[in-house]
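User: Can you help me understand a structure? I only have the sequence.
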Amino acid sequence: MDQLEDVHAQLDLLGSDGREVEQLLDYDIVLRLNDDETGYAGFEIIYYPTEEIVHYEEFKNAVD
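Assistant: Let's start by predicting it. Here is the structure, written out as tokens:
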């Protein structure tokens, strides 16, 4: 069985005008594992230049 790990993704989205929203490039979404590493517990939004956690959201149906 493959071991789960935190997953990092850069926010790269287009606005309604079809152009890249450059401000989002400084932010990452990180899926975080639960304590026993058997599932994802939630996600963080991180301001990448300073590594500040801007927001953490626990999944409503997180695996304990």
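Now, to help you interpret it: Residues 7-58 form one domain. The chain is about 0% helix and 40% strand. Let me know which part you'd like to focus on.
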